[in-house]
């Protein structure tokens, strides 16, 4: 038997004719398959308070390079609700971390919210090789055009519309952050430069939760949200 990520494969034993070769081939095939998948979706029902669950992700990369979103889950409808700083329960009620001893293969979610929770975790690995983020921040208190390679700290005491630059000009990351904690009420709208898409949609993109942040990167034609 071979365990690959969350798959258990049953095949001829290593000491039988052809067993070793088959074992190696199957392991190679499924490891490559697992490595090719750039996201994982995990669920855990009724995770007790003060308890944790370990999820395997098989990314073969450090925990620090991963991105994740945590959700509460309606087990009846399957509906997911993003857990944020402003939600109930709040993101601070959970701890998402590398599992001790398994820094590149598992993620641990600890529930400290005061009651059992049905949760879902979406884990992504984003390759930012060759993409640069300059260590420069801009304070934004009006409707402006976004700049490549900048962190934009947005004053959300009023709604803001921020316009993306031409995606063909650079592949640097653009970061937008609600710096005053009111985006849930005063939404930050990310407007397109022209006819390009944002995250696959030919429409503006909204940052609409308090203290929220997002990154955007161009592939030269369209925008992708990090």
Notes on the protein architecture:
- The chain is built from 1 helix and 17 strands.
- By secondary structure, the chain is mainly beta.
- It has 3 domains: 2-36; 39-125, Immunoglobulin-like (Sandwich); 137-225, gp9 (Jelly Rolls).
- A 5-stranded mixed beta sheet has the order 10-11-13-16-17, with no helix packed on it.
- Strand 7 and strand 8 form a beta hairpin.
- The model is unreliable at 1-7 and 32-37 (pLDDT under 50).
Global outline: globular
The helix content is under 10%
Largest sheet features:
5 strands, mixed
Unreliable spans are 1-7, 32-37
**Helix-strand pattern:** EEHEEEEEEEEEEEEEEE
User: What's the total number of strands?
Assistant: 17
Number of helices: 1
Instruction: Just name the CATH architecture of the largest domain.
Output: Sandwich
Q: CATH superfamily membership of the largest domain, which one?
A: gp9
**Cα gyration radius (Å):** 21 Å
CATH top level class name of the largest domain: Mainly Beta
What is the third-level CATH name, the topology of the largest domain? Jelly Rolls
Mean pLDDT: 81
Q: How big a fraction of the residues is strand?
A: 35-45%
State the domain count.
3
N→C terminal distance: 38 Å
SS-based class: mainly beta
Which strand order do you get reading across the main beta sheet? 10-11-13-16-17
């Amino acid at each position: 038997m071979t365990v690959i990520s969350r798959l258990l494969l049953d095949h001829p034993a290593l000491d039988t004719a052809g067993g070793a070769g088959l074992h190696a081939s199957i392991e190679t095939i499924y490891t490559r398959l697992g490595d090719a998948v750039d996201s994982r979706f995990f669920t855990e029902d009724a995770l007790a308070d003060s308890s944790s669950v370990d999820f395997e992700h098989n990314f073969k990369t450090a925990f620090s390079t991963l991105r994740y979103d945590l959700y509460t889950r309606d087990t009846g409808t399957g509906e997911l609700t993003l857990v944020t700083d402003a939600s109930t329960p709040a993101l601070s009620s959970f701890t998402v971390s590398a599992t001790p001893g398994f820094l590149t293969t598992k993620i641990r979610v600890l529930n400290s919210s005061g009651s059992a929770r049905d949760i879902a975790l979406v884990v992504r690995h984003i390759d930012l090789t060759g993409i640069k983020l300059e260590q420069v921040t801009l304070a934004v208190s009006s409707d402006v055009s976004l700049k490549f390679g900048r962190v934009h700290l947005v004053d959300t005491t009023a709604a803001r519309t921020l316009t993306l630059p031409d995606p063909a000009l650079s592949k640097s990351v653009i970061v937008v952050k609600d710096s005053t904690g009111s985006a849930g009420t005063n939404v930050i709208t990310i407007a397109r430069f022209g006819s390009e898409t944002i995250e696959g949609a030919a429409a503006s993109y909204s940052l609409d939760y308090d203290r929220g942040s997002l990154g955007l990167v161009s592939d030269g034609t369209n925008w992708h949200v990090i």
